[in-house]
Amino acid sequence: MRGAAPWGLAVPAVAGMAFLVLPLVGLAVRAPWTTLPARLTEPRVLEALRLSLITATTATVVCLALGVPLAWLLARARFRGRGLVRALVTVPLVLPPVVGGVALLLVFGRNGLIGRWFSGAFTLPFTTAGVVMAEAFVAMPFLVISVEGTLRAADPRYEEAAATLGASRWTVFRRVTLPLVAPGVVAGAVLCWARALGEFGATITFAGNLPGTTQTMPLAVYLALETDPEAAIVLSLVLLAVCVAVLAVLRDRWIKA
Amino acid sequence: MSGSAVRSLVSALLLMVLLAAAGCAGGKKEPETLTVFAAASLTESFGTLGKAFEKSHPGVTVKFNFGGSSTLAQQIVQGAPADVFAAASPATMKQSGAPSPRIFARNRLEIAVPKGNPAHVAALKDLANPAVKVALCAEQVPCGAAAVKALAAGGVTVKPVTQEQDVKAALSKVRLGEVDAALVYRTDVKAAAGAVEGIEFPEADKAINDYPIAAVPKTAHLVLAREFIDLVLSDQGRRVLTDAGFTAV
Is residue B229 part of a domain? Predict the structure, then answer.
């Protein structure tokens, strides 16, 4: 399709873009640019950034390991109650993250349904592993939905051909299905990572807030806002810059639109 | 529709609006809304006082915005439509720019422990035991600043497992039994109504929180705002605040 976009689309499109971009402009305008370099090298900023990158990446790996098989099950396997399972899997999308954090505490906390059996050996709340769990809980549906959609759109005849040639279901999945849906997996992983990086509510509720152990960037931003809004702006800009840089690189390299 | 039809429609509408306005002015006093921004720890006591104020001022509705004091102060600076501000610390009151605040209540820290006190906490120094899991408020919020002062006064060094974003979050970790103890306000222990146990400790004397109240400079309801502040400072106000666990001033 060529030519100018019709007014009915162009006007709301530009308004929508302005609505999304203007708040970012506001952050940039109010940022304390003169003191920026000094603030950026503060150890607590680097500490929170490091923790955020490590936990978001680990959470994405966890989501890939569990979420891709789950998406395959939802898209390819036939079993009763599949619709219900699909609905349940996407619940974290609509659940307020703080509620998700409380739910995690009720199950994995030291008095939780499962957590109480392990409370002698180890505890998850207030640990970096707890941050990864909270992030994975909130971010996994993004991956599952993306991969499941790609799987449904993929032509099943390739898989059927491989099966008639004697490949086992596991081999078919590994050698045919996975390469076929790779773009969907990458797109899902990127979404999942971005969601995990910005995660706040479930993390602060389930993992608490301790610099160096569980204080990720969004938590640092929230607490900085209490006393030092300028510091909060700086932290937000750092998070923003990292996210945009990573997504831009990935988009060029992996996701061909 | 022709031009004259539109004109007559418009004038008819205008007439209706004018009549409605005249009707209001001719009747009893116009309904007014007093908007009070108050620290989260005042939720219960100010709720009671708000109802009392509405009863003694027919036609007046009191609306509350409860939240973290520094968040509220920032909202006021950004032009939020507040008439009265009651903060949990003089510092946050100063942040809001409201002139000549008056201290109306004091709050002190207590050690909150889960029912049955599983870690057998009896005094502030017990929190230094590494086997005791402790939640504190982050230093950036008033309850965290008070905790730092109290711990310093007692010469106690605590390694908390978490620094919570507000006092209610610290309390909920105790309620769920995820930590063995937390430093929270006495009013929070009281509001939890038996879900947690409170332990008083003498070092809390060194970290008393003053609660100031003031009319917001740009308020359009200055008379009402002053009357509400008078109610908070009155004997009735003191009684309600004391019941909630505050020390009235």
Answer: yes
By DSSP bridging, strand B109-114 and strand B162-164 are unpaired
pLDDT tens, B203-247? 999 999 999 999 998 899 999 999 999 999 999 999 999 999 999
The pLDDT value recorded for residue B1 is 47
Chain A contact residues (CB < 8 Å to B): 102, 105-106, 109-111, 125-126, 204-205, 207-211, 214, 219, 222-229
When divided into structural domains, chain B yields a total of: 2
Q: Does residue A62 fall inside a structural domain?
A: yes
CA of residue A193 relative to chain centroid, distance = 4
Q: What is the mean pLDDT of each run of 10 residues along chain A (257 residues)?
A: 82 95 89 85 88 97 97 91 91 93 93 86 90 97 95 91 92 93 92 94 94 94 84 89 83 60
Q: Find residue B213's DSSP bridge partners.
A: B86, B102
pTM over 0.90: no
Same domain? For B58 and B102 the reply is yes
Distance in Å, alpha carbon of B177 to nearest chain A alpha carbon: 7
Cα–Cα distance for residue pair B36/B63, rounded to 1 Å: 6
For residues B126 and B209, the answer to whether their CB atoms sit within 8 Å is no
- How is residue A16 written in tokens? 């929508």
